[in-house]
User: Fold this.
Amino acid sequence: MASETTVEIEERETESSWSGGKPPMEASYGKLMMWYFLLSDAFTFAGFLIAYGALRFSSPTWPVPDFVFSTFPGGIHDAPLIFVTVMTFVLLASSFTMVRAVQEGHRENKNGVVFWMLLTIVGGASFLGCQAWEWANLIGTEHMSVTTNPFGTHVESGVYLEGNDHGIAKGDLVQPGDSYLIHKHDGEWDPLKYRTEEGVVKEQQFGPKAFGALFFFITGFHGFHVFSGVVFLIIICINAASGLYVERRNGYEMIEKIGLYWHFVDLVWVFVFLVFYLL
Assistant:
C-alpha cells in the first residue's frame, strides 16, 4: 500500500514538471520579449561601437575629445568634458528614479509610481535637451557635419605663420599631437598655416571624415532610443495615473518592462561615453 502511494506521488511530480505552460524563471511573456529585444539591440550598438574603435585606432590622426568637447552653455570654453559629464549624470539619475518607480509598483502604490515616473520623464527630456545643444554647438559654431570634420591633430612640429581667433597666435610653436580647429571666416574656410622645421609652409588639412559621421550617427541613434523611451514613459505614466494597472494586481509589470528598456538605454550611454569622450 505504501509502495502504491509512493508511485502515485512520483507520477504526479513528473506530470507537474513536464506539464508545460509555466513561464521560465517566473518571467512573463512580456518580460521575455523585452529581454530578447534588448539583446538584439545590444548587438546593434556593439557593432557600431566596434566599427568606431576600429577606425579610431587605424587612423594616424584623430580628434582629441578634450579639445572637441570643451565648450559649456553660456560662452564657457576650455572646460573639457564638463558638459557631457552633466549629461551623463542627468541620465544616470533618471535611472535611479526609474528604479524607485518599479519599487512603488511592486507595492501597488499608484501615486508613488506616477511621481517617480514623472521625475524619470524630466530626466530623459533634460538629457535630450542637452544633446540638442551639443549638436547645435558642433554644427552651428564649430561647423562640423557628417562630411566635414574641422578638428584635427598635428603630426609634425613647426611655427605658426598666422594666428586666429581661437587661441592660436602668430609665432606659437606647433607641437606634434596638439589639436587644432579650422573655422569658417566670411563664409570661407580659414586653414591654419605653419612653417615646418625644414622651412616648408603647410596648411592644416581637415580631420578624418569618419569622426563626424560616426559621432552624429551613433549619438543620434542613442538619442532616438531616449526619445522613444520618453514617449513610452509618458504614455505608461498616463495609464498608471488613470488607474489602468490597479485592476491587474500584477505589481505594475508594465512599469518593470519599460524600466528594463530605460536601464538598457542608460547602460548603452556609458559605453558611448567611454568610446567617444574618453578614448
About this structure: The first helix runs from residue 2 to 17. The first strand starts at residue 151 and ends at 153. Residues 45 and 268 are 8 Å apart (CA to CA).
